[in-house]
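tokens incoming
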């Protein structure tokens, strides 16, 4: 089992990423780091790479690929690290050939490199909306037992006859909304780790959330937080953390 993780840190945000090629149209490589699932990067030639120079060695232990057609295009994605801009040093950190176009989460023991690269291979060029690879923020405790990871709500239009009989429903999408409650965490973690992450990213931008990456990596969601971060006090040097998250089931 694993504790919940907030996925927002990304090496692609450390400097301007450089693509080996880009297809014509609105496929700017910067789209990979804007956390929008409706803007894409697509290469014009395969294999293709996106490389970033972080300026100094930076750690990563996960990669999230969201909004992609890797499976449809029978393509593979690799995460690579290097100490010399992929000269003599070119280390394969993780790779996957997805079986579906669902959100993809990869994890590994933390490693640090100055240069990071995402590489895609295959016969046909895929489109990728979000690629984030960095250091996951892992909660220090497991989730409260009331948490429901796969609840969902249908967003659409329900149709009935003039006599009230059900005629079916037009489904637009399925939404997910849950209160994430972390009980009995230290004030040190809440003040020195969570609140800075909240200010830097979690309060204003989408991010990835996974409640159990070891058993259910496919449950990763692109979410946003509500307006309130609750941190009620407990006796001693402990507190609770309450954060409401919402997203879309893919």
């Amino acid at each position: 089992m694993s504790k919940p993780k907030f996925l927002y840190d990304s090496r692609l945000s450390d400097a301007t990423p450089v693509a080996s090629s880009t297809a014509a149209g609105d496929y700017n490589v910067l789209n990979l780091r804007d956390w929008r699932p409706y803007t894409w990067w697509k290469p014009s030639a395969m294999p293709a790479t996106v490389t970033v120079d972080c300026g100094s060695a930076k750690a990563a232990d996960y990669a999230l690929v969201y909004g992609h057609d890797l499976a449809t295009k029978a393509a593979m994605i690799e995460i690579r690290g290097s100490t010399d801009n992929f000269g003599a040093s070119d280390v394969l950190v993780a790779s996957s050939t997805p079986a579906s176009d669902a959100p993809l989460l990869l994890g590994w023991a933390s490693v640090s490199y100055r240069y990071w690269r995402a590489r895609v291979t295959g016969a046909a060029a895929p489109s990728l909306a979000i690629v984030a690879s960095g250091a996951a923020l892992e909660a220090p405790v497991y989730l409260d037992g009331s948490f429901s990871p796969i609840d969902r709500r249908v967003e659409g239009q329900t149709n009935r006859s003039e006599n009230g009989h059900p005629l079916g429903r037009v489904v637009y999408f399925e939404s997910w909304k849950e209160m994430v409650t972390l009980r009995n965490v230290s004030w040190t973690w809440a003040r020195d780790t969570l609140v800075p992450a909240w200010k830097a990213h979690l309060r204003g931008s989408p991010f990835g959330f996974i409640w159990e990456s070891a058993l259910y990596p496919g449950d990763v969601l692109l979410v946003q937080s509500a307006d309130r971060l609750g941190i009620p006090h407990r006796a001693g040097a402990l507190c609770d953390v309450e954060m409401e998250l919402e997203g879309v089931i893919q």
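note: The chain is about 5% helix and 50% strand.
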